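Work Package 3 committed the consortium to producing structural models of liganded targets before the mid-term review. Because experimental data for this complex are still outstanding, the team generated a predictive model from sequence and the ligand definition alone, so that downstream docking and mutagenesis planning could proceed in parallel. The input record is reproduced below exactly as it was submitted to the modelling pipeline, together with the SMILES string for flavin mononucleotide.
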Amino acid sequence: MRHTICYVSTVSPDVSDTMLSEIMAHVKQNNSKLDITGILMHSEGNFFQVLEGEKEVILPLFHKIKEDRRHYNVIKILDKEINNSTFTEYHSSFAVISSQSGHKELQHFLKRLKTNNPEHFKSISYLTQKFMKLS
Ligand SMILES: Cc1cc2nc3c(=O)[nH]c(=O)nc-3n(C[C@H](O)[C@H](O)[C@H](O)COP(=O)(O)O)c2cc1C
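The resulting structure, written out as tokens with the ligand in place, is given here.
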């Protein structure tokens, strides 16, 4: 069963730019290996993440992420099952986006989301655009 979790959080004060880059690189690599799709965005001291994958992978991973001391104030926005059939692209990778780069990658993620998960497209698209201050 596929599952999605979406949350916002605050970056811990002792996290440097180098540590941020390390988190982003680790997440992209690990999530692609685990067949997790979604997005991790960083902007002005906050994270926004959407995780989509097998329920037995997503739930323990989110538990681990929540305990990670490199961020705090983890506020869950979405936590629900998603229809298998909404996933048509199996080889889509996990996008990581920081304020300096990645608008093109965000547009690509949103386009995929609109096709694969139309139910969540409107709200996630709204949140990501606001988060990156694109509108
Ligand atoms: C904001 C944030 C998001 C994270 N997202 C993921 C993620 O999507 N996938 C992942 O494997 N680790 C993610 N991590 C890292 C995990 O919290 C954890 O450090 C990592 O999975 C390594 O765990 P391990 O040493 O038990 O393998 C994230 C960390 C932070 C701070």
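Reviewers should note the following from the model. Residues 17-33 form the longest helix (17 residues). These observations will guide the Year 2 experiments.
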